[in-house]
Each structure stands twice: as C-alpha cells, then as structure tokens.
Specification:
12 strands, 4-stranded antiparallel sheet, globular, about 260 residues
Length: about 260
C-alpha cells in the first residue's frame, strides 16, 4: 500500500438551504487502501460520497486528486478522474444478460459487412476471464443477471468498475442486504480489488464488516468527523461506541 494520497478532501462543507449536511470534513485516501466511512443514518455519509463522485459540489472546501486541486461539475468528471461508485441500488438491468450489463454503453464492436455489431465473442471471453479472477464461475455470460445472488451482482458491478479503469472505488453499503455467505464473497472481492492497487472507500454502518477489510476508519456524526483511526488502533467496541452517539452522551455527562 502506497503512502501517497491519491485523493484528499479538506474542510468540506455542504449546505442545502439552511441545513448543514457536512461541517468541515477532511479525509485522505491512499492507493490500495480500504478506507471505511462509518456512521449512523443522517451522519453525512451519503452526502460525502456524492461529493466524492461528482453528484454534489461542496459549498466550500478543497478536493485534490494525485496532488492537484479538482472541481467536479458532475459524475462524468469523477469517472474521468478515475472515481467509480457502486451504489446500494445497483445500476444493473435484471432481465438483461450479465454480459450486456457488464458492457452496457461500452460494448466492443466489429464490422459485419456494412453493419457494426457487438462483438459478443470477445465481450463474453473478457467477461468470463474477469469474473474468474474474482472467483465467480458464471454458467453462461448470456444468463440473466437477475439469476445471480445479491452478492454476485455486487461483485459484477465492482468488477465492471475496476475493468473500466477505476482507481478509487466507492462502495455504498455493499453488504447491507446480504446474508453471511454473500457478504463474505463481497469482502473477498474487496481484498482482490485492493491487490490491484485500487483504493476502496467502504461506506457502512456495520462495524464487523468494516473491521474485516479496513485499513482506516473514519466515523461521521451529524456532518462532522469524530476521528480517523488505523487498523489495530481501535477495536469493535470503541467504533460502535463512537457510532452510536455514546461518545457525545459521555461528553455531556462529563460537563454536568
């Protein structure tokens, strides 16, 4: 894992009218690391990742990628900067094949006479190879993606993002609706992605899942960071304590 920050957010504020969703959040993401963003509902996680992925622009603060300040006016700018986001509600079409979902909008083509058509043979070959690399044995690339388990669909979406050049992969609650076995497979996929040097931003409110793959843990609460710790510096109980708001309650009791 590199010591160099591939992405840095400094003093990020985001307001929606009179509501301050983020109040000076700063985080640093390094190449090949898994940085976990933890927090309860309303903590600011969704707003932060939407800023990282270009959906929202910060009210103030600075975003740097590879040491250069950037301004992202939309998701396309983020994608062009090597940032890909896999949301909870996967951007997959259930009745379409795994291959068509993987290549959607980026299909490899060939000429058949005067007509340009999708090169199914090449697309299918690459898909099967990419799926094999991350441990998914597809029966057939033409099978409907809706026939895959939730964990397998997550893995297809992750693999697609990495194949198309993501250097920073943002995963929005990727294990929230999965069973134990499917969760294990997704966490293994994250490990394989990191081995390729891709930075992973893992958003979750599940401390156990975060501890299984995380190198760093940043806890958000009410739009602010409560702190960042490296793996080995903080345990399950301490992270859970911070996330649940007990830290704030303890501080209130100490003042009274």
């Amino acid at each position: 894992m590199s010591d160099k920050s591939i992405m840095q957010l400094s003093n990020i504020h985001k307001s929606f009218g009179n509501v301050d969703a983020l109040k000076g959040v700063s985080i640093s993401i390094k190449k090949g690391e898994c940085h976990c963003l933890l927090g309860d509902n309303g903590a600011g996680k969704s707003t932060l990742i939407k800023i990282m992925s270009g959906v929202h622009q910060p009210t103030s603060g600075e975003i740097m990628i590879d040491g250069r300040p950037v301004e992202m006016s939309g998701p396309r700018d983020a994608i062009n900067s090597g940032i890909a986001t896999v949301y909870q509600d996967l951007a997959l079409i259930p009745l379409m094949s795994v291959a068509r979902n993987f290549w959607l909008g980026r299909e490899l083509t060939k000429k058949v006479g005067p007509i340009t058509v999708m090169d199914f043979e090449k697309c299918n070959s690459i898909l099967m190879s990419e799926m094999d690399k991350i441990g998914i044995k597809l029966r057939d690339p033409s099978q409907s993606i809706g026939t895959l388990s939730g964990g397998e669909r997550q893995t297809v979406a992750i693999s697609r993002a990495v194949y198309f050049g993501a250097e920073i992969l943002i995963l929005d609650e990727p294990t929230s609706a999965l069973g134990v076995y499917q969760t294990s497979n997704v966490l293994k996929t994250i490990e394989k992605v990191r081995e390729k040097g891709v930075a992973v931003v893992f958003i979750s409110h599940n401390v156990s899942h975060a501890l299984a793959v995380g190198d760093k843990f940043t806890v958000l609460s009410r739009g602010e960071t409560l702190g960042t710790a490296k793996a080995g510096e903080i345990n399950y109980e301490e992270l859970q304590f911070m996330m649940s708001g007990n830290k704030e309650l303890s501080e209130l009791k100490a003042r009274n």
